[in-house]
Amino acid sequence: MSQDVGALADRYNDYENDDAAMEAEAAIVAALGDKLYEDESFPAAGGSLYKNPHAPPRGALPPDAVEWNRINELEIVGCENPSTFIDGVTAGDVIQGALGNCWFISAMSVLATRSDLLKNVIVSDKNRSKGIYTVKISKAGKWRYMHIDDRMPCNRSGKINFAHSRDPNETWVMVLEKAYAKLHGSYESLISGYIDFGLRDLTGAATMKLKFKDKKVKKMLANGKLWDQLKEWKAEGSLMGCSMATEKGGGQEHDMGMGILSGHAYGILRLEEVEAAATDEVDEFKGKMVQVRNPWGQSEWNGDWSDKDVMWDDYPSIFEQLQPDGFKSDGTFWIEWTDFKEQYNQMFVGLDFGDDWVGQRYRGKWSPGSDVSGCGGMPKYPTFPTNPQYSFSVTEQTKAIFIVSQKDNRWQGGDAKYKTAVGFVCMKLDGDRKRCPKFNSRKMAGMSRTFVPARTVAGQLNLSPGRYAVVPTTFKPGTVEEEFVLELYSNKAMKCDLEGDDLPDLDDIEKEAIKDDEDDELDDDYFEEEEEHEPENEEEGRELTFLSEQVGDLAEKIRTLAAEVTGLEQKVVQMEGN
Q1: Taking the complete model, does pTM exceed 0.85, yes or no?
Q2: Who wins on pLDDT, 81 or 552?
């Protein structure tokens, strides 16, 4: 299966642009007549809820206990005046439901800090009175459009079962989650994942995972440059998340003792530097502060600078700067950077690039035995030059972002785990050369953060004027053909030598020998292969918790009905007595 095609291609459309998608929506509505839209490709049935509707996840509602209630027919409890967006959007809008998809909820929560990006994915709600919304999600470097109906999974009490907004009348959260579930087959298919993949799908942005144990990241933590880089990215509008990832076999998420859950995804909302002068009671304070949000809307950090901690009373000027509207029990909290580094061990960044950036996308293959599109492995292998190489030139100082993507297993089916570690290396070229015939560390302009068995690996480079070749590669030489997608983005004009996907034959490329004294000088462990951490898994029993709440709702209904019956019986007795 091509990387451009999802396993459920009948559930989305590759429209040319938003206008084409809205024209298609208008045609659907015109054909409805007096009826409301019903999405036949993602019906109100058990197969849309679970991979196997006859065997739902432990504690989940059985399909016949789920009611598919319409938003715009006012069938959902509390949703009496529905609107896609109400009074703007904030990260606090997003509340996780019974589904174990905190990674995606966190991605939506972070997305809500950029209303322009959020409203970009909700393509159309103008026909919501006819029960239809149009949403787009980025996959394999392209926007995929979906028309969904407004029937949402609810319990027997009429309460929404999965993700929703804090204001029950605001609907964008449940609409976006349903579209994402449709694209991947079912709501259950969204259980367990990574924030960075969610951010990439929601924005099309390049995403990076920064692991604090990584040698390069550890160095940046020590010298303070990571904070400076994060501040720069945040100022540019980049989106961020974090987690305390568990190692393989580390189990489900759990409280580590200070309110932070391991194996749980959080969104990062703000990065601030604060200071306050000394007083008779307290010393001077200077610190770096991170505002974090738990997608549950509860369960917060309980250390220094937690909600209503004494530090806020000691330093009222910092309170006015960071929390002028006071505290809410909404899962959002502040934590000092020094504590943050102890409570979390990785961050996710969705790098934002403006509309003025230019881009190029290639589809390629690592083919064993090929001289121009081989599986040569990383630079320490002598077969490195046989990897696919994509040459380009820039004429001024340029900021560039490169992305290498493998098959999207959640979207395209296949094993949940990735086995092949991938990355890229960018090499400086001499003269008009179009390929790098041999690795030379002096010619390396940059690389991906590392090589990792993941869906996507990205990196940001600052390039001086000149010619370059970006080399997507597996960590080890491969023996099986594998596909990849390479995306190149830059803030200045980038002239790519290759117009299509086909690489030229090696015979057409000038080759020169490199002197032996130009060999690389890098340490043997400079190029590292990482193991991917376990995805953010929900604590066991989350579905049971919601099931218990639903039982409570039903019990309350039964009590109410019993009271009404008793009242009617008393009236009957009175009437008979008269």
Answers
A1: no
A2: 81
